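Morning!

This is the sequence you dropped in the shared folder:
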Amino acid sequence: MSEELAEFLQHRRDKLKKLKEKKVNPYPYKFDRTHSTEDILNNFESLEKEEKEVTTAGRIVSLRKHGKSLFFHIQDGYDKIQVYVKADEVGNDKFELFEYFDIGDHVGVEGKVFVTKTGEKSIRARDFTILSKSLQPLPEKWHGLQDKELRYRQRYLDLIVNPKVKETFVKRTKIIQAMRRFLDDSGFLEVETPILQPIYGGASARPFVTHHNTLDIDLYLRIADELYLKRLIIGGFEKVYEFCKDFRNEGMDKNHNPEFSMLELYQAYADYNDIMELYREMLISVAKEVLDSTKFTYQGNQIDLSGEWKRIPMLDSIKEIGGVDVIDKDEGELKEIALNLELNVAGTANKWKIIDTLFGSLVQPKLIQPTFITDYPMEISPLAKKHRKKEGLTERFELFIGGLELGNAFSELNDPLDQRQRFEQQKKLRELGDEEAQVLDEDFLRALEYGMPPTGGLGVGIDRVVMLFTDSASIRDVIFFPQMRPEA
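The structure's back. C-alpha cells below.
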C-alpha cells in the first residue's frame, strides 16, 4: 500500500471517529424512502408542480462545496440525481457534518425537486442523513478501475463505477426470464434435479469430487442434467426443462468457467429437427423481447436471426469451410494435418477427438450467422441416436452464432442395448487415458430398459447466450463472480 493511500484511508477513519463523537450513527438500521432516483426523474414535472416532498437515498458519487452551500450527486440502483444543500436551510450544525462526508458514502435526502440555473433536475435538501460511511476510496480516485482482473475479482467496485457492467447483468436476468417464459408458454414444466450425484454423466468432462461423511461415499458435482431429466421422460413427463448450475473441472478461458449456467430441456415424441426449430424460435423470441430486434452486433459482426438458419453436416463443414477433407483419413494422417496447422493434439485418445479439434480451429470461428452443425460422428456423441440415413453418424446438432457454440442437441438415444455398448466404448477410451470419457451408469441403463419414448433434447450454455446478446467478449463479463486464481 502506498503512503498516500494509507494516509487517505486513515483520514476516512478519522472522519468516522468524528461523526461518532458528535453522536451521529454512521451506520443506521434503515431509511424509509418514498422515491427512487428513477421515480423522481420520471415524474419530475408533476413533483415540481405539486411541490411534493421526496425522500430518496444513494451513494455520493460527486461532491463540490461553495462556502455555505454545496452540490452532490447520489446514485442508487436505478439512476443518479443532483442534490443541493444550503446551510441556512438545513442548519449550520447539520451543514458542518459534510466536513466528514466523502465520495462513496451513502446518504438519505429529504426535500423538494427543482431545476438549477444550468437546467439540471435536482433536489433542494431540507434534511439529510448519513446511512453508511465509506472507508475505502472509489476507484476513480486512483485512476479508475482499468485492470480487468481486479474488475472481476472486486465486482462490487466494477458495478459501482461502470454503469454498462450493471446493464449487462440486468439484461442477463431479462434473457433468462424471456427463455423461461417461452418454455412455459410452449407447455414445458420446470423441474429440479440433483447437483450432488453418485455417478456423474451426460457430458464429456472431468468432475469435481466431494465426500459425504454420513454415507462415507464420494459424490460428484453434476457436469450435466441430462441423465436425470431423461429419467423424468421415462417416468411420464413429456416436456421438462431446468435452469441449473453445472460444474466441470477444466481449464478457464474466454468461453469456459468451472461453474456455469445451463438450460437443459427434453421433449417426448420429438427428434433433433423439432428441437432445431424450437431453439430457433426461442432465440428469436428472446431477441425480440430483450433487444426489440432480431438484428444486433456481436464483436463487430452484424448478426441477423431472421429467416432460415443454415444447416451443414460436421464433416462436410470441415471440408467446405475449413478447407480440409478429413473423411476416410486415419489417425496418423489427421495428426499430421493438425501438426501442420500447429494444433496441439498430443495425447489425444482417438481420431474423432482430432477431428473435433480441427473443427474447433478451422470452422467454428467462421460461423458468424446462425448455423446448425449437424450429424456428428458416433464416437463423440455417446448419448445420441444413430443417424437414420448416414452410417457412422448420429442425429446431433450444435448451434453456432458469432463464432460461439450456443447449444448441443440430439435425437436422444433410447435403445438400452445400444446405449450400453456406447458406454462400454467410453470405458475403453478412459482406459486409454481420456479422462473426459463418460462413465457407465447402471441405474440409467435400467431406467432405459423400462422404455423411453422418442425424445429430442437440448443443452444451452446460458452464459454464452448472454455473451451474444450483450456483445461481451468473455464469459467473465457475464458472470458476477467468475472463478479466479487466489490473490498473491
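Headline: The first helix runs from residue 3 to 21.

More detail when I'm at my desk.
O.
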